[in-house]
Design goal:
Among the domains are: 97 residues, 2-Layer Sandwich (Gyrase A, domain 2), CATH 3.30.1360.60; 191 residues, no CATH class; 174 residues, Glucose Permease (Domain IIA) (Distorted Sandwich), CATH 2.70.70. The longest helix is centred in the middle third of the chain and has 42 residues. Helix 1 packs across helix 3, helix 5 runs antiparallel to helix 17 and helix 9 crosses helix 12. It is elongated and about 90 Å long. A hairpin with a 2-residue loop joins strand 3 and strand 4. The chain is an alpha+beta fold.
């Protein structure tokens, strides 16, 4: 009996709490994707029993109800009409789900992560080298070693060590503009503006004072003509303002003038707002904070140092820490030593210990490859990679680092730990405290071990261990339990790979064969055959897309699994669909989450519409590249029209070569 699409849509609408509970609605090739305001309003039993629904699960902040190709489009249209709901694309629903799961504070943290994670490799490389160069320079100037600097080898290395930090605002401007949706090159221009040589370098203000001011409103308001070297927040705010202006201009400026009017007005308006308001506000805030710090350092029992050690890392986020040199220089001038530098060192070591804990605990190769060098950089006193790339991104390690830094700073204050100079913290900071080396080592141990221990206890991978993911044959309850157990906070594996599969299935299932024939499918790759339930992605493992088998490839060539026609070739290369001459629809999904690699490891030899013979090479695959990105190369071979057969029987296990039988359909 034909499905009543209106009834099916109404049942789902009622089961989820009505239209007022819908934040966003979209559909893909097989599923209705709903982002809900309040999950507690969902009648799960009613969703499970909804007319026409083949299953449902909650993943990545979305309730996904499986209807199948063709059916979902009609149910979606009725759903939108019945609830008077604004339609959304799948990408918009995904974005809405991600945002729905975060409070404003966490959204801001995520934004900083989106801005800084892409540029972390640059500042990690410079940070490690800068720490080493600073230590070598200090040891040379104080007679510990003799270092020859009058040669090109040293000078080039010195240039490399400070380049990323010298032009950091340009990197941040480009990345922040991208994160806000603005033209990234205009964002880079804003970064250049804030460190333009026409402005006094901010690093000289502490020793030389402000050299020039300009009147905005004569007699009432003037601005200091200084750059923003080392400052983070002003350029991020500038990028946000730029995006706000640019997006609105694109909507109102005629297309014939948009190319030059929109960039000109966007950059000019953003420059005025940033230089006249955003920048000066932060200068005022920094001066107020520095005054407060001087007061805190005078509190008894090290309480002020405890507070400042804990708050030092958050001030790195704002760039205020660049002004702390004035505290060091003032104390050295007054006391002959600085009590501030050991506090800063404790804070840096705390963040280093927290990042190291993440590196040792995570099972995510990409996170480990970022956290380990970032922690080493922080141990040398350069904490930006650890803070922005790791600790602040996951937040709990950041708090652990602050606590460790606070306790280390408190100890330093109680024992009167002081430094003879400034400029070096972390491991090499002991060179400034040679009169109290034991106290420095103890401070180092307190800050690092406390932060490490707390971070290790608090940190949890967002992505579950792939080996722990198991799934049973597809049913409503099983699919939901399987995916709920492995759902990811940030729309990663299940959503990404399922979305990729949807795109392929949509094309493959455009015309289901009405007269399928028994057939044997052969292995398209050499490797190891495993049951589908052992695939780490829960959507594939549950066989919600169709029955089949998976190959862990040992060689990087994908071959045709039967005679037939290429129906699908994903733009990103990671999925290929073939309709065999016998009517079997086969989807080959190369690796898990490989859609994010943007086609880099895939070199196809065929195009959509080509007729191929069994064993014919379809694509070369760089397996080493996929593994280097921390991704699984396992390749599910899915019979997407499983329902057309009485049985889909995997018939292989263990080692297989190209052409070996792997699936029988009849």
């Amino acid at each position: 009996m034909a499905l009543d699409y209106t009834k099916a849509a109404q049942e789902i609408l009622d089961a989820i709490g009505g239209p007022d509970n819908v934040v966003s609605a979209a559909h893909c090739a097989t599923r209705l994707r709903l982002v809900l305001a309040d999950d507690s309003k969902v009648d799960q039993a009613a969703v499970d029993n909804a007319d026409g629904a083949k299953g449902n699960f909650k993943a990545s902040g979305q309730l996904q109800v499986i209807y199948g190709t063709g059916t979902v489009n009609k149910v979606y249209d009725e759903f939108i009409a019945l609830g008077h709901i604004s339609a959304a694309t799948k990408a918009e629903a995904k974005a809405a789900a991600a945002e729905q799961q975060k409070n404003p504070f966490m959204r801001a943290i995520k934004l900083l992560g989106d801005v800084f994670v892409p540029i972390i490799p640059a500042i990690v490389a410079s940070g490690l080298l800068l720490g080493i160069m600073s230590a070598l320079s200090f040891m040379d100037s104080n007679g510990f070693i003799t270092l020859s600097t009058d040669n090109a080898w040293y000078q080039i290395l010195n240039l490399v060590s400070n380049t990323a930090f010298t032009f950091l605002q340009i990197l941040i401007g480009y990345s922040a503009a991208s994160a806000f949706g603005a033209n990234p090159y205009l964002g880079a221009v804003m970064g250049m503006l804030l460190i333009n040589p026409g402005l006094q370098n901010a690093n000289t203000v502490a020793t030389e004072g402000v050299q020039q001011t300009y009147a905005v409103i004569p007699g009432l308001y003037s601005i200091e003509w200084t750059g923003y070297q080392g400052h983070v927040i002003p350029i991020v705010i500038a990028a946000g303002i730029l995006a706000f202006i640019e997006k609105r201009l694109h909507k109102v400026v005629p297309e014939a003038f948009d190319l030059f009017v929109t960039p000109l007005v966007s950059v000019a308006a953003t420059a005025y707002i940033t230089m006249l308001a955003v920048g000066p506000i932060f200068v005022w805030a920094e001066n107020a904070i520095l005054g407060g710090i001087q007061f805190l350092l005078t509190l008894p029992l090290g309480l002020g140092s405890l507070i400042m050690g804990a708050l030092y890392a958050p001030t790195v986020v704002t760039g205020i820490h660049q002004m702390y040199t004035t505290i060091d220089l003032g104390q050295i001038a007054t006391y002959g030593v600085t009590y501030w530098l050991p506090l800063a060192s404790a804070a840096n070591i705390g963040q280093a210990g927290a990042a190291l804990a993440v590196a040792l605990k995570t099972r995510d190769v990409k996170i480990r490859s970022l956290a380990l060098p970032s922690s080493l950089s922080a141990f040398m006193g350069i904490t930006e990679p650890a803070i922005f790339g790791v600790n602040l991104r996951f937040f709990k390690p950041f708090i652990a680092g602050c606590i460790g830094g606070g306790l280390g700073a408190m100890f330093a204050s109680i024992v009167g730990l002081a430094a003879a100079g400034t400029g070096v913290t972390g491991i090499f900071g002991i060179l400034l405290c040679l009169n109290q080396p034991i106290q420095y080592i103890i401070m180092f141990a307190i800050a690092g071990l406390v932060a490490f221990g707390l971070s290790y206890m608090l940190y949890r991978d967002e992505t579950p261990n792939a080996e722990a993911v198991q799934a049973e044959p597809t049913t409503n309850a099983t699919v939901q339990a399987s995916v709920n157990a492995t759902a990811r906070d940030e729309a990663e594996a299940a959503a990404v790979s399922a979305a990729a599969a949807d795109a392929a299935i949509a094309a493959v299932n455009g015309s289901v064969a009405s007269d399928v024939q028994p057939a044997t499918i052969v292995s398209p790759m050499a490797g190891t055959a495993i049951p589908m339930k052992e695939v780490s992605d829960p959507v594939f493992a549950s066989e919600a897309m169709g029955a089949g088998i998976a190959i862990v490839p040992s060689e990087g060539t994908l071959h045709a699994p039967a005679d037939g026609k290429v129906i699908v070739l994903a733009d990103t290369g990671h999925a290929v669909g073939v309709m065999t001459d016998a009517g079997t629809e086969i989807l080959m999904h190369i690796g898990i989450d490989t859609v994010g690699l943007e086609g880099k490891p895939f070199a196809p030899h065929v195009k959509v519409g080509d007729h191929v013979r069994a064993g014919q090479p379809l694509m070369d695959v760089d397996l080493a590249y996929i593994k280097a990105q921390g991704l699984d190369t396992v390749t599910p071979i899915i019979i997407t029209n499983t329902a057309a057969y009485e049985a889909v029987e995997p018939c292989a296990s263990g080692d297989v070569t190209v052409g070996d039988p792997i699936i029988k359909v009849h």
